[in-house]
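tool_log.txt
---
The assistant was asked to compare two proteins side by side. It first ran the structure predictor on the initial sequence, then on the second. Raw inputs and outputs are pasted verbatim so the downstream comparison step can read them without reformatting.
(1)
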Amino acid sequence: MKKFFISFLGALAGIWFSLFIAFFGIIIAVAVGTASSGGKVTKDVKKGSFLCLDLSGVIADRPGSIKPIEFLQGNTDLPLGLNEIIAAIDAAADDDKISGVVIEANGGIGAGMAQLQAIREALSRFRSKAPQKWVYAYGDNYTLGEYYLASLADSIFVNPIGMIDIHGIGQQGLYFKDMLDKLGVEVQVVKVGTYKSAVEPFIRNDMSEPAREQASVYIKNIWSFISSQIAEGRKVDAATVNSWANSYLMTRPAEEYVAEGIADRLLYRHEFDERLCALTDVDKPKDLHSVSVTDYVKGKDILKKDSGKGAKIGVLYACGDITDEDGDGIVAADLVSEILRLAEEDEIDGLVMYVNSGGGSAYASEQIWEALQQWKKITAKPLYVSMSDYAASGGYYISCGADRIYAQPTTLTGSIGIFGMIPNVQPLMSQKLGVHVSTVRSCEKGEMPGIFEPMSPGLASAMQGYVDRGYDLFTRRCAEGRHISQDSIKAIAEGRVWDGCEALKLGLVDEIGGLDAAIAGMANKLNVESWTICEFPEREIKWYDAIFEAGAELKASIVKSELGEAAPLYEAIERVKQMSVLQARMETVELRL
C-alpha cells in the first residue's frame, strides 16, 4: 500500500511537467497530422495484387484519427475502422486486380469478439463471391482472435518457431473491498437486480454466485459459437478444438501444429513470400504487390452500394460510456442534439444506430431514448439498431425503442438494472487522517448523499426508492419497445447479461447479424437494392480539441507507466468519480481471448 501511494504521488508530480514539455511538440504534431490527412492519395493497385490484413493494434468501430501522442512516438498510421476493413474485403472480391487476401498474425490485434466476427463474415463472403481467389494466413504468433479469423483461410502458415494460442475464453476482474477497508472507504450501494454485478468490485472480494452463474452461461455460449466456427474452418469437430484449448497449445513445438491439423505448413517469412510470388506470377518477393486496407480504401467510396441512388441510410454511431454532458464516449447532450437535428434531414430514408456500449448514466440513457422516439415521431421513418460487442444496461436502454434490433452471437446485451454508489470516506478522514466533519442543517431530514458521512437509514430508504423508480422506468421502456409485458421483461431483467443468441430466444433482439445485415435489412424495408450510407456524428476535430485530448492521453499514459500493476485500481477510482448518482451500467467485462 505504501508503494502504491509513493508511485501514485510520483506519477502526479510528473504529469503536468510532462504536459508542459510536450505542449509545443503536440501543436506541431497536430499541425503536421492535419496536413497529412488533408487529401487522399490513391495507391496504384496493379494486376496480381493482394489485400494484406495486418490487423495489429486497436480496431475502432469507425475510422480513427492520428493521436498526437502516437504521432510524437513516430506512429503516423491512422487507426483502422471496422467499416473500412469490411468494405475493403467486400470490394476486393469484385476487383480483378486483387488475387487474394493475406491475414497477418502478429499477436497484437485489439478487437472485440463481435468485431472479429464481422471481419470473419466478410472473409466468408469473399470466398463465396470469388471462389477462384485465395485466402492465406501467416504469422509468428497467433492469438486466439487472430486464429479465429485465420481458421477460415485456405491455408494457415506459421513460422517454424512460431506460436499458436487457443485457450478458450474467460473473464477475470479485480475486487477492492479489503483494500478499501484498509483505506477507510465504505462504498454504499443502492441497486435493483440480483445479477447487477457492476458494484461487486467495490463491496466484495470475489465474484458472487449470481454473477458467476450469468458469466458461466454467456462464456459457455460464446465459446461454443467460436469453437464451432474454428472447427468448421479447419474441418474438424468441436471436441477437437476443445482438446486444443485444453493442451497449453502455446507451449508446444510448431511441428505439432501441423501434425494435428491446427496449421498447414511451417514456413519462414521468405519462404511464404516465395509462395506468394508463385500465386501472383512475380519473380521475386521485392516485386510482390501488397495493398493495405488503408491504401486500398483510399479513393473508393466505401459508403455506397451499387449506384447509391436507391436510398440514403443514416448510420448513427453510439460507442463508449454513456455520460450526461462530457466524456469520450456517448455524451447525451451532444447525441440528443444530433438525433433531433437528423429528424430535420429529409434526405435520410432510414436510420441504423450502431451501439457498442456497456451503459452509464441512467438519466443520459433516458434522454437519448426519448430523442430517438422523437425522431421516429417526427420522421415516421424506420429506426434499426445494430449491436456490436456490447449493448448492455444503458446500451440496451437506448436500443430498446428501435423497430428492429440486430445482435451478433458474441454480443453481450441485456443487463437491465439500475444502481447507485456513494462512497463514504468518513473512516479514512477521521481514523487515518485525523480530519473530522461537523454538520448543521435547517431541516432534520434535509441530508443529501455525500462522501463525508454515511447515509442515515431514512436517506438510504429514500435512495432505494429512487433507484426502484429508475428500474421501473427502464423495464417499462423495454416493454414498450419490445411489445411485451413489463412483467415479462422483469423476469429476464434483474441486471442479467445475455449473449446475442440467448437474447434472440428471449425476445430482447430480433435477428442475428452485424451492421451489414442491419443495413441490408433496412434496404429491404425501404425496398431498394442500391443505397448510400451517411455516417453520424460527422467527424470534425478542431486543433485545440486535439491538444486537450493529447493532454488526457499523456496523463493516462504516464499514470499507467508509473503505477504499473496498480493502474487498474486508479482507473476504477477514476470511473467511480465520473459516475452520476444513478447508473444503468453493466460490469466491466473483458473476455480474455
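(2)
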Amino acid sequence: MGNLRSILKHFAPYRRAVIIGLASLLVVDGLQLLIPRIIKQAVDGLTAGTATGGDLAGYGMMIAALAAVIAALRFVWRCLIIGTSRHIEEDIRNRIFEHLLRLSSRYFALTKTGDLMAHATNDLNAVRMACGFGLVATTDAIILGVASIGFMLVLNVKLTLLALIPMPIIAFFTLRAGKLLHQRFERVQETFSHLMEGVRESIAGIRVVKAYVQEDHQQERLSDLGRRYIRRNVELVRIWGVFFPFVILMSSLSVVIVLFVGGRQVMLGTISTGDLVAFVSYLGILTWPMMAMGWVVNVLQRGSASMGRINRILESVPEIVDSERAVDLDVVRGEVEFRDVTFQYDDDAAPALSDVSFVVPAGSSLGVLGRTGSGKSTICNLLLRIFETGEGQVLLDGHNVKGLSLRSVRRAFGYVPQDTFLFSDTVAENIRFGSPDATDDDVRRAAEVASILGEIEELADGMDTLVGERGVTLSGGQKQRIAIARAIVALPSVIILDDALSSVDTATEEKIQRGLATVLQGRTSIIVSHRISSISGADDIIVFDGGRITERGTHQELLAEGGLYADIHQRQLLEEEMDESNADQA
C-alpha cells in the first residue's frame, strides 16, 4: 500500500486532466448502462406486438446517438488518463536520473548498471501501466460493477442474488492470486536486471571477449540468463493464465444461472422478455468489471512491485551533499592545501592517505609521483569531493571544501582522470562537454593545445566525427588528449591531470606540455603521473609511498636526495635507452 500511495502522489500536478478524464469515463459508463434499458423497451414492444417501424427506428437512433457520444468521450478519457500516465512516467524517469546524478561514487561501485537500466525501462513501464490502465480498470470495476448490480436489482432482486453467487469465489481467488503475482513479478524484474547487466558487460567488453576467444562462453552465459528470465515469466504467466480464464468461467456461470432461472420466470410470466434481455445485457456489462478485477490485481501488483524497486533508489541517501551553510565561491584563485589528511575508503581497509599535508600556491604547479596504490589518485578524489575527507582538512583558497557548495568546488577544477571516458557523440561535443557554451574556435584551440587537432582533422568528418561507444574508434592516446582538451576548454582555476599522458609517446607528451605551458600560466595545476618526464618541470614535486609523503622538492633536489624519486628516474632512463636501442636494431 505504501508503494501505491507513492504512485498516487505523482497524480497531483495533473489533477485537472485526471478529474476531466475520470468524469468522461463515468459518463461513458453511465451511457452504457442506458442502452440495455432501450433494448428492453424495444423487445417488450416487439413481444407485445405494439412496436411500430417508427418506434424501432427511434430506438435505433437513440442507441446510435449514445454510441457516438460514448466514442467521443472514450477518446477524451483515453487522451487525458493515458496521457497523464505518460507524463508521470516522464516525471519519475527525470526524478530517477536527477537523483542518480546526486548519489555518491560509492553507490555506483556497489550497484550494477543493469539494475539501474531495468529500473529505467521495465519498472517504469509497469508503473505507467498502473497509472493509466490500472486507474481505468479500478474505476470501471467499482463504478460500472456497482451500477450494473444496481440496475439488475431494480429489474429482479432474486435473479440478481443468484447471478452474484460466483462473486465471492472470484474475490477470494483474486486475493490469493494477487500475492503470488506480486512475488513472481519481483523475481521477473530481478532476473531482468541480471540479464540487462550481462548484455551490457558483454557489449562493453566485446574486445576482451574476442581477444580471449570467449564468444561461445558469453553466448552460453547470456543464453542461460535468457532461459532463466523466460522461466520466471512463464511462472508469472501461469498465475495470470489461470486467473483470467477463471474469471470468464465464473462470469459464464452467472449467465447460465440467469438463463436457466430467468427463462423459467419468463415462461411463468413473472418477468417480461425485455426484462430478461436487459438483465443479460447488464450481466454482460458486469462481465468487464469482473475481468477488470483481474487487470487491476495484475497491473497494480506489477506497478506496486516496480515502484518499490524505484523507491529503493530514490530513498538512497547521497553520502556527499552541500551543508546547510554551504558557501558558493564566485571567484577562485586556485590555492590548494591538504592539512593533516588521513583517509580510508572502507572502515576495514588500510588508510589510503596518512597524515598528508602540503600547499599548492595559486598559479603554481605540483607534480605527484608514486607507485601504484600509493594514494596519488585519492588526492584528486578528495579535492573534487568525490569522496569526503576523514581526518584533517582539504582547503581551496583557505576554505574547507566541506563548507563549499559542490557546484562551486567542482566548477573550479578541470579534471582528466586515469580512466578516460568519451560519450558516444562527435569529437567536438566531447570537447565542448567541459564548457557547453564554448564556441567552435574555443574547441579548436583546446584541441590544438592538447596536440590532437591535426589528428582530428584527418578523421573522415573532422570535428563532426562520431567517436563511437566510449570512444571505441579512437586510440588510447587520442582519447586522453580529447579529455585534456575537454578540461582546457572550461578554463578552470585548477587543472588536475591524473596520469593523463600515460597513453601518449614522449614526443607527443613534450608537445602537449609546451601547449599546456601557455594555458596553465596563472593557473594552478596538479599533475599526477608515474612518468617523471610528465612532472619534472613542476614548481614542486611530492612523492607518495604507502599513503604518505616520503619525499618533496624540485626535480633536481629530489634527484640529489637519491631516494625513491631518483630510483624511478634511473629505471625510466634505462627503459628509454633500451627502447631506443631496440628501435635502432629493428
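---
observation on (2): DSSP finds 21 helices and ten strands in the chain. The chain has a mean pLDDT of 84.
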